Amino acid sequence: MRAEFQKENLSLYFIAGTQDCPAGIETVLRQAIEGGITMFQFREKGPGSLDSKDDIVSLAIRLQAICREAAIPFIINDDVDLAVKIGADGVHVGQEDEKALEIRAKLKGKILGVSVHSSEEAAKAKADGADYIGVGPVYPTTSKADAKEARGTEVIRDIRLAGMQIPLVGIGGITAENAAPVFASGADGVSVISSISRAQDPKEAARRFSAIIG
Ligand code: TZP
Ligand code: MG
């Protein structure tokens, strides 16, 4: 784990790729940072995402520079090789991706996040060396084509009731209006795509979460 990583980094965890940002991802990321996001994940995936590996690498490098300037962690979704290549701060993977245990061995000193859907998967992620877990979808989402059914805050509560103390972030359909129950159920933060990336004013959209974040 990176010495600098703390659960406070998860408070307002913005995720985006080209496909999520009609106003342009670099502009949106800069505005989201001004609005107070605490961590960023580059997730270039699905319809509207870049095809060319070279374009993805150069975009990743530009987004990493923006995050570095703002001193917020820069995480890459799925692509461990890309993260190693550019020296990202960490990687986030799901249950269908490369095994967390193998990634942990490759990413010494980096942040590792794992998506989970039950307290069993949460325990395994922790044992494999995850620094934090993502739990969702909490609410229905249109940003992930193969998302599982939304289960409200139930799974977050289950994981906490099972005694899991790992840093935890809720994801899926979260807005400033519905984020409070996510924190109340035991999450340390919220991960959001569209409520910031598709907002008319991403800075203001991010800012509106600050009243809910402790
Ligand atoms: N994993 C579970 S839901 C989701 C991901 C990546 C998408 C979240 O996007 P949004 O727009 O905040 O619902
Ligand atoms: Mg994945």
Automatic annotation (TrEMBL):
<dbReference type="InterPro" id="IPR022998">
    <property type="entry name" value="ThiamineP_synth_TenI"/>
</dbReference>
<dbReference type="GO" id="GO:0005737">
    <property type="term" value="C:cytoplasm"/>
</dbReference>
<dbReference type="GO" id="GO:0004789">
    <property type="term" value="F:thiamine-phosphate diphosphorylase activity"/>
</dbReference>
<feature type="binding site">
    <location>
        <begin position="141"/>
        <end position="143"/>
    </location>
    <ligand>
        <name>2-[(2R,5Z)-2-carboxy-4-methylthiazol-5(2H)-ylidene]ethyl phosphate</name>
    </ligand>
</feature>
<dbReference type="GO" id="GO:0009228">
    <property type="term" value="P:thiamine biosynthetic process"/>
</dbReference>
<keyword id="KW-0479">Metal-binding</keyword>
<feature type="binding site">
    <location>
        <begin position="41"/>
        <end position="45"/>
    </location>
    <ligand>
        <name>4-amino-2-methyl-5-(diphosphooxymethyl)pyrimidine</name>
    </ligand>
</feature>
<dbReference type="InterPro" id="IPR013785">
    <property type="entry name" value="Aldolase_TIM"/>
</dbReference>
<comment type="pathway">
    <text>Cofactor biosynthesis; thiamine diphosphate biosynthesis; thiamine phosphate from 4-amino-2-methyl-5-diphosphomethylpyrimidine and 4-methyl-5-(2-phosphoethyl)-thiazole: step 1/1.</text>
</comment>
<feature type="binding site">
    <location>
        <begin position="193"/>
        <end position="194"/>
    </location>
    <ligand>
        <name>2-[(2R,5Z)-2-carboxy-4-methylthiazol-5(2H)-ylidene]ethyl phosphate</name>
    </ligand>
</feature>
<dbReference type="InterPro" id="IPR034291">
    <property type="entry name" value="TMP_synthase"/>
</dbReference>
<comment type="function">
    <text>Condenses 4-methyl-5-(beta-hydroxyethyl)thiazole monophosphate (THZ-P) and 2-methyl-4-amino-5-hydroxymethyl pyrimidine pyrophosphate (HMP-PP) to form thiamine monophosphate (TMP).</text>
</comment>
<keyword id="KW-0808">Transferase</keyword>
<feature type="binding site">
    <location>
        <position position="77"/>
    </location>
    <ligand>
        <name>4-amino-2-methyl-5-(diphosphooxymethyl)pyrimidine</name>
    </ligand>
</feature>
<keyword id="KW-0784">Thiamine biosynthesis</keyword>
<dbReference type="Pfam" id="PF02581">
    <property type="entry name" value="TMP-TENI"/>
</dbReference>
<feature type="binding site">
    <location>
        <position position="115"/>
    </location>
    <ligand>
        <name>4-amino-2-methyl-5-(diphosphooxymethyl)pyrimidine</name>
    </ligand>
</feature>
<feature type="domain" description="Thiamine phosphate synthase/TenI">
    <location>
        <begin position="12"/>
        <end position="196"/>
    </location>
</feature>
<comment type="similarity">
    <text>Belongs to the thiamine-phosphate synthase family.</text>
</comment>
<protein>
    <recommendedName>
        <fullName>Thiamine-phosphate synthase</fullName>
        <ecNumber>2.5.1.3</ecNumber>
    </recommendedName>
</protein>
<feature type="binding site">
    <location>
        <position position="97"/>
    </location>
    <ligand>
        <name>Mg(2+)</name>
    </ligand>
</feature>
<feature type="binding site">
    <location>
        <position position="144"/>
    </location>
    <ligand>
        <name>4-amino-2-methyl-5-(diphosphooxymethyl)pyrimidine</name>
    </ligand>
</feature>
<dbReference type="GO" id="GO:0009229">
    <property type="term" value="P:thiamine diphosphate biosynthetic process"/>
</dbReference>
<keyword id="KW-0460">Magnesium</keyword>
<dbReference type="GO" id="GO:0000287">
    <property type="term" value="F:magnesium ion binding"/>
</dbReference>
<feature type="binding site">
    <location>
        <position position="173"/>
    </location>
    <ligand>
        <name>2-[(2R,5Z)-2-carboxy-4-methylthiazol-5(2H)-ylidene]ethyl phosphate</name>
    </ligand>
</feature>
<feature type="binding site">
    <location>
        <position position="78"/>
    </location>
    <ligand>
        <name>Mg(2+)</name>
    </ligand>
</feature>
<dbReference type="InterPro" id="IPR036206">
    <property type="entry name" value="ThiamineP_synth_sf"/>
</dbReference>
